[in-house]
Amino acid sequence: MTTLTDIEGLITRELTRRGTCTLELLAQRLQTCTWNQVFMAVDILSRRGAIILRPLPRFQYMVSLASTESNLFRHVATVTAAEGLLGDGCN
């Protein structure tokens, strides 16, 4: 029997290997899992911040790993904060 933790691992490996895709396509690719299992695992991963869900037209969702985007956000926030500090010291 496949556990929820196993399915979460399958999802993150699939997204790492093939990249961003729709929720429907992800469920189709994970043929050993039911749609409900994939949906539940995606919900948990999304709430943890491990993946990002973006709404698309016609009630679809794009699923992607969060690590790249969150690292980019951290970098932008760090650079912005550093520029603020440099700007304060130059006045």
Largest sheet: 3 strands, antiparallel
Q: How many distinct helices? A: 4
Which series of helices and strands comes N to C? HEHHEEH
CATH-derived architecture of the domain at 4-66: Orthogonal Bundle
Structural class: alpha+beta
CATH topology of the domain at 4-66: Arc Repressor Mutant, subunit A
State the helicity in percent bands: 55-70%
How many distinct beta strands?
A: 3
Mean pLDDT: 83
Briefly, what CATH class of the domain at 4-66? Mainly Alpha
Classify the beta-strand content into a percent band.
15-25%
Low-pLDDT segments: 73-83
Backbone shape:
globular
Computed Rg:
18 Å
Structural description of this entry:
This protein has 91 residues and is an alpha+beta fold. Helix content is 65%, strand content 15%. The protein has four helices and three strands. Helix 1 (4-18) crosses helix 3.
